[in-house]
Each structure stands twice: as structure tokens, then as C-alpha cells.
Design brief:
alpha+beta, 2 domains, two-stranded antiparallel sheet, 5 helices, 21% helix
């Protein structure tokens, strides 16, 4: 009988010890959630660093990007008949006289203009891109930001999300360096509420109902050079028969010594 009493006492002690451990764990877990468990803000959590100065590198479409293409040169654009009618009526002098010289500097076209970018965090939830061409500024908002009411603007309203995929050990420049960080990471941006503008300098239009989606990726070369790859897609059923997709490259600069803000121009 004493044997069974001893075993029962041991069992009770074991149960009490386990209960104490569970209570302590619950208390620590609760403290973590209450004090340090809140997720970090987008600035602190960003898996890639886009900040700094970047310069356009034009490796293709030189005749559309470095000079103003002539009226009627619409090669590679999936234009609707309504788009062609607008573009065929393009008159840069008329745009300038009407104060519409920034039509090709709107969000859906500006990343294709030869330019320099200066990317900073305006605050913990807003990434800011200053662009010297046209002296434009784009703001990428994270979290529960709501688009304000009012008239459409050249740069529209942009909602951003930082996306990481895959296990640790990815290549440098895509979410980490030296094998740290996720396998890949992108900044994904959706822009709406844009003022109607031009996809190309020669009057190829997009409407106020256009939707621009972009992926921003960082690639590091073996020599340490950093590249910013911007993949964009414009959807606009009024002026495009299908989504218009482009890839644009920027190279990281050591400083802002080449920074040269210039006003919008209807032609170059």
C-alpha cells in the first residue's frame, strides 16, 4: 500500500511541475505579444534596401527613350483604335500651351524616361521616390493607407507591399547578402487614380482608368554593382488591347553628384 501511495505522490508532483511550466510559458508568451510581439513596420521589415541614388541604363528601345519618336511610330504597343486616334492627333506645342507638358511624366510612363532616382523613406510606412526628370515625386504607401478623395494626379495613388519568398540562403542582393535573408524579395506596387497621360513621348495615351502594377527587384553582380529592375504592367481597356509589360533597369550610384532636376518638357 505504501508503494502505491508513493507512486501517487510522485504523479501528483509531476503534474504540478508540468502545470507550473505551462503557466510560465503562457506568461512569457503573453508578455511577448503584449510588449515585443507587434510586427515591425515596413521600413524595419523591408527584406531589400531600395534607398539611395539610381540612374537609368538604356539598353533597348533607345529611339523611344532617348529622343522623341516621330508621330505615328507606335511599334510594339498593343494600341486600340481609340488610342491610335488620340496619338495621331498629338501636338506637343498644343500640350505645352495648355500646361500639359507633363503628360509623359505620369506614373505609367515616367520610369522609362532617362533619369535619376533618389529613393528614401519618408516615414516608416511610406517609401518616397524623387525623380529628377520632370521634378516628380512618387509615394508608395504601405499598410491600411486609404486613397484620398480628389482629382487624379500625375503620379496617382500607390499602394505597396514587400514580398519575400523561399527559405534563407538566397543570393546576395535579393533579400540578403552573403547567403542571409530570403531566397527572393520584391517590392510590389499598384497605382491607380492617375491623371491621363502618355506611355510614350509621342502621344500614345493611357486613360484615368488605367491600372499600373510594378515589381521592384534588386540584383547584385559579382563585382558588387547593384541593379534595380522595375517590371511594369499597364492595363487600360480603353487604349490597350492587352496589358503592356516592360522591364526597366537602373544602376546604383555612390552619391547624388549627377542629380539634375529639370522641368517637364513636351519634347526633348
Amino acid at each position: 500500500m505504501r508503494y502505491f501511495d508513493s507512486r501517487a505522490r510522485t504523479t501528483r508532483l509531476l503534474i504540478a511541475a508540468i502545470a507550473g511550466m505551462l503557466a510560465t510559458s503562457a506568461q512569457v508568451y503573453g508578455q511577448g505579444r503584449g510588449r515585443g510581439g507587434a510586427p515591425p513596420n515596413p521600413r524595419a521589415a523591408a527584406p531589400i534596401d531600395l534607398t539611395g541614388y539610381w540612374v537609368s541604363v538604356v539598353t533597348k528601345d533607345w529611339r523611344y527613350r532617348m529622343i522623341t519618336p516621330p508621330k505615328g511610330d507606335y511599334q510594339s504597343l498593343p494600341m486600340t483604335m481609340a488610342s491610335k486616334r488620340v496619338a495621331d492627333a498629338w501636338d506637343p506645342a498644343k500640350d505645352a500651351a495648355a500646361g500639359e507638358q507633363c503628360r509623359s511624366y505620369g506614373a505609367a510612363g515616367i520610369m522609362r524616361i532617362p533619369e535619376r532616382l533618389h529613393i528614401t523613406w519618408q516615414d516608416d510606412n511610406t517609401l518616397k521616390i524623387d525623380i529628377d526628370a520632370g521634378t516628380q515625386t512618387r509615394l508608395f504607401h504601405f499598410g491600411d493607407w486609404k486613397s484620398p478623395a480628389g482629382a487624379a494626379t500625375w503620379q496617382g495613388d500607390s499602394v505597396a507591399q514587400l514580398d519575400s519568398q523561399g527559405p534563407p540562403g538566397g543570393p546576395p542582393g535579393r533579400g540578403g547578402a552573403g547567403g542571409a535573408g530570403p531566397r527572393s524579395a520584391s517590392l510590389m506596387v499598384t497605382t491607380t487614380h492617375m491623371r491621363a497621360g502618355y506611355l510614350r513621348k509621342n502621344g500614345v495615351p493611357y486613360s484615368e482608368n488605367a491600372i499600373l502594377t510594378e515589381d521592384y527587384d534588386i540584383v547584385r553582380e559579382r563585382n558588387g554593382d547593384l541593379w534595380l529592375i522595375v517590371t511594369s504592367e499597364v492595363q487600360d481597356p480603353l487604349y490597350l488591347r492587352e496589358p503592356f509589360i516592360l522591364s526597366t533597369q537602373f544602376k546604383k550610384q555612390a552619391d547624388g553628384s549627377g542629380w539634375d532636376p529639370t522641368p517637364c518638357s513636351a519634347t526633348w
